[in-house]
Specification:
By secondary structure, the chain is mainly beta. The protein contains no helices and 7 strands. It has strands spanning about 1-5, 15, 20, 35-40, 45, 50-55, 65. It has a 3-stranded antiparallel sheet with strand order 2-6-5, with no helix packed on it. A two-stranded antiparallel ribbon has the order 1-3.
Length: about 70
């Protein structure tokens, strides 16, 4: 799985749109799958079901995408 963009900092008030690309054997691009996105701390970063993030407050949070068993 490739997550884009590759950022590790999101400024308060800034938005970012994340996407997933599924890659199989021999780097073949696989069909898209639906994913669910979560934030470890919604007070720091809020994430929408489509992978859109917004920085809410200073702090640290982990954003996780889950797609089936991936």
């Amino acid at each position: 799985v490739v997550v884009e963009p590759r950022i590790d900092t999101l400024t308060v008030g800034t938005r970012a749109q994340f996407t997933l690309t599924f890659v199989g054997d021999r780097r073949a691009i696989l069909p898209a799958r639906s994913a669910s996105w979560t934030s470890s701390d919604e007070r720091v970063v809020r994430v929408d079901p489509d992978g859109s993030l917004v920085g809410v407050n200073p702090g640290r949070a982990r954003v996780t995408a889950t797609a089936g068993n991936v």
